[in-house]
Amino acid sequence: MKIAILPGDGIGPEITAEAVKVLNALDLKFEMETAPVGGAAYEASGHPLPPATLKLAKDADAVLFGAVGDWKYDTLDRPLRPEQAILGLRKELGLFANFRPAICYEQLTHASSLKPELVAGLDILIIRELTGDIYFGQPRGRRTAVDGHFPGSEEAFDTMRYSRPEIERIAHVAFQAAQKRSKKVTSVDKANVLETFQFWKDVVTEVGQQYPDVQLDHMYVDNAAMQLVKEPKKFDVVVTGNMFGDILSDEASMLTGSIGMLPSASLNDQKQGLYEPSHGSAPDIAGQGVANPLATILSAAMMLRFSLNQPEAADRIETAVKAVLAQGLRTPDIYSAGTTKVGTREMGEAVLKALK
Ligand code: IPM
Ligand code: MN
């Protein structure tokens, strides 16, 4: 089992280090190799996704990714910005299916900004299409407008697009995931305004006919954003495009208490996957040893389950995380009165102890 470890920027190295310790404690045979990515790689070699890093990722069974980005790179040309590393990996590895579960652990019911009764027992799965949509659509750029409200002025544009096979394959992923859960899929679109998302809705509906045991409903993205905070437990599997999925998954993360708790998996059609916390590089707290490593540790558990065929080891990690929460240990992002505040390393150590 070959794992590429790409720690990245900001809190990335701190949180990945804890996840690596947990993996090493499992008594499984991993071949782990680390490579720079994002701003760290730009500093070292002038490119956020150096060819050697990309090759390491491609040759691995799975990639464990920390986070990339820092404000100090905001003025670089777009191809050199840290974010291009994660976008490039998604594209080059064909990681079209992004799983972002939002689970509210019993012990964190009170850490959510919503009323406890709204989030207690919450367990939803956002499935975000990850290699299409306006993120990757061409053409894009800047030019002089020839029409629109201000012809002759400078303008910028992006292209929102989805092909039938792209929608079909992510729809299959969503319906199959729902079959293993409560058999309900909500497809989120903006069909009332956008051609791309009328097509999305039509194709998802067609694919849904192959899954008569799964209940499918459709929701406009603005309404979905509202329903997520009004009555989140109404959702089970949510499937949506790249941009809406980006936004809704951040929103859903706060239902669980902290974005610092949310793992994610990005898979291609060979079950090769990239696993990363749903949060970013948090440069404001980097190097302070206070970041929550649990999202990354839980991402490692997803990796064991989805790409490395080690479901028992995944269960062990998840059980250990719950045990640590039950002990009352909290990083600052999930801290509340009556619990014990700990740092990144103490949290990692506690998970290790609970594993044994
Ligand atoms: C995410 C991030 C990325 C995205 C950025 C860093 C490119 O926000 O994984 O959700 O927009 O997809
Ligand atoms: Mn995001």
TrEMBL record:
Lineage, broadest ranks: Bacteria, Pseudomonadati, Pseudomonadota, Betaproteobacteria, Burkholderiales
PROSITE patterns: IDH_IMDH
Subunit structure: Homodimer.
Localisation per UniProt entry: Cytoplasm
NAD among keywords: yes
PANTHER family linked to this entry: 3-ISOPROPYLMALATE DEHYDROGENASE (PTHR42979)
Family of the protein in this entry: Belongs to the isocitrate and isopropylmalate dehydrogenases family. LeuB type 1 subfamily.
Swiss-Prot/TrEMBL cofactor(s): Mg(2+); Mn(2+)
UniProt-annotated binding residues for substrate: R90, R100, R128, D222
Cofactor binding notes: Binds 1 Mg(2+) or Mn(2+) ion per subunit.
EC class: oxidoreductase
Gene: leuB
HAMAP family recorded: LeuB_type1
Superkingdom assignment: Bacteria
Matching Pfam families: Iso_dh
Residue sites binding Mg(2+) per the record: D222, D246, D250
Full protein name: 3-isopropylmalate dehydrogenase
Site (Important for catalysis): Y135, K190
GO MF entries: 3-isopropylmalate dehydrogenase activity; magnesium ion binding; NAD binding
Residues that coordinate or bind NAD(+): G280, S281, A282, P283, D284, I285, A286, G287, Q288, G289, V290, A291, N292
